[in-house]
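seq as requested:
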Amino acid sequence: MKRLVEWKDSPGRKPLLLTGVRQCGKTYVCKQFGEQFFEDVAYFYFEGNTGLASVFEYDFDVERILDELGNILRQKPIVPGKTLVIFDEVQACPRAITSLKYFCENKRELHIICAGSLLGVSIRRDGISFPVGKVERLHMYPLSFSEFLRADGGQALYDGVQKYDLRCELPELYTKKLEKELQYYYIVGGMPEAVNKWVESHNFEEVDKIQSDILEDYVGDFAKYAPIVDVPKLGWIWDSIPKQLAKENNKFVFSHVKAGKRSHDLEDALEWLKDVGLIY
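struct tokens:
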């Protein structure tokens, strides 16, 4: 949120591209930001919305685009300086991405954020004309340990640690509690929905159900967005990574993914997982 406020107040502000893995909280933080710092939020979701995408088909006249998005689609004008415009899952509409160049050049006073979870993959796959130099980028990750700790009621613990020189050993007053919280973090992870459920219930079974649903959604994306030839490879690698990294010699070895497969067989699939933020 701090980074978004800095972007909002920057005199040289360009349209902002917020990327990150699916379900890490991009949409949530954009809407919260809009509600707190703007009079109005104009939210547009592109995935599966052909009517919305058609607004960008004719040309890149930003005045026409804003008129149709505001007065026709949502029946409320978009006012630069007062309205935050959010384009969500913008990779589903390549021309909307291209239009950012014209918003940057001709409507700099408009605050516009684009959120996308598969943008890097889409640019490579669809040959999108990316507005180089005309957008700012911000990448969002799942919660870090310190964020998890504070969410789980550990603000005082976090604040206390800040008073110490971390090159020195921490007293047991902190280490015992921190080790316990770190074990919870290893199990719960940093996905906001899972963390929220943990904070509410401290029930591992309820957290596990949410984690399983998220993982199933990711696997569903393989078939939906990845090249057909890579789909089986993505599944092999996805299943193999945690098994390999859990071993004592925690290195990822291509030949251990599937018998007879080598790096040149699997490199593209591994790169796809990296590009969408599922591994890093």
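The mean pLDDT is 92.
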